[in-house]
Amino acid sequence: MSAGLLIFLIAAVVVVSILFNSLVAKKNEIENATGAVHSYLQKRADLIPSLVATVKQYAAHESKLLTEITEARASLQRPMTGEGDLQQADSLMSQMFGRIIAVAENYPDLKANQNFLSLQASLNEIEGQLSAARRTYNAAVVRYNNAVEGMPTLILAQVLGYRRKAVFQVAPEAAVKPDVAKLFGQAS
Question: HSE on the CB side for 177, CA within 13 Å?
Fold first, then answer.
């Protein structure tokens, strides 16, 4: 074997190793970011019992909404295996929190209640952390997708079965402001 061929083979192994390690690092970065999003979703869900108990004192006739919120929280306790599961859980929780805050706005005593204000402040903090975690996840996905779709890692990614991943998107219904009149069963 000639020295030139040996150097070429060594260089090829080094390049493939570097590309492989780069892909693995990007994949692991996404897994880490997914864990952070899940952690903040769980933290947000853990606030629900306190929030529900506080609101329940003021809004006893809103039991249907409170039941739906408790069920939404329970859905977060199930294992989330796919990327869509995380987004679906986030969307559901966002809708529920929007609805409970809308109900709370109709109870002036509740809005002034220290427990409720404290819970609302905690929720705002978690929402900020969750938003940052989503941005981190999306940035990791973009870096990964760029590597999986760009040369020369495209070839290695295809051989290893690495596929493009979807960025985290909030469902459109989660961004809609709740209709308070409808929540109270009144005509809009």
Answer: 4
Among candidate residues 176, 170, 165, 36, the one with its CA nearest the CA of residue 90: 170
Helix (H) or strand (E) holding 78: none
Contact 40, 123 (CB under 8 A): no
Domain locations in the chain?
3-183
Helix axes 63-76, 3-58, angle to 10 degrees: 160
- Span between the terminal Cα atoms of the chain, in Å: 84
pLDDT for 90 equals 72
Structure tokens at 38: 């899940």
| Top-level class of domain 3-183 | mainly alpha
CA dist 182 and 138 (Å) reads: 35
0.85 surpassed by pTM: no
**Whose CA is closest to 101, among 159, 54, 158?**
54
Mean pLDDT over each residue of the chain, to the nearest integer: 75
